[in-house]
Specification:
alpha/beta; 3-stranded parallel sheet; single chain; about 20% helix; Ribosomal Protein L15, Chain: K, domain 2
């Protein structure tokens, strides 16, 4: 009997899984104040290499400038930090 039939199968692979490109709040400080940041601008800046299923914004780091961010998903802490700096988050 072949080896792959003798060994047990392990785990589960979800074929419907969505992977997001990750961007941290601290990385948004390189943009101009009061500018709109969308996935295309993130790709031009080199923060996103592969688009995958979209862009997710995480709350690691600090932002001091107000920016308008348009992403596919955002964590609660990222949204709070951007709104505290005077910006806003829009979910696409």
């Amino acid at each position: 009997m072949p080896l792959q039939r003798r060994l047990p199968k392990r785990g589960f692979t979800n074929i419907f899984r969505k992977e997001y490109a990750i961007v941290h709040v601290g990385d948004l400080s390189r943009f101009e104040p009061n500018s709109t940041v969308d996935p295309e601008r993130l790709r031009e800046a080199g923060l996103v290499r592969k688009m995958k299923s979209g862009v997710k914004l995480l709350g690691d780091g600090d932002v001091t400038i107000p920016v308008e961010v348009r992403v596919h998903r955002a964590s609660r802490t990222a949204r709070e930090k951007i709104e505290a700096a005077g910006g806003r988050v829009e979910i696409i």
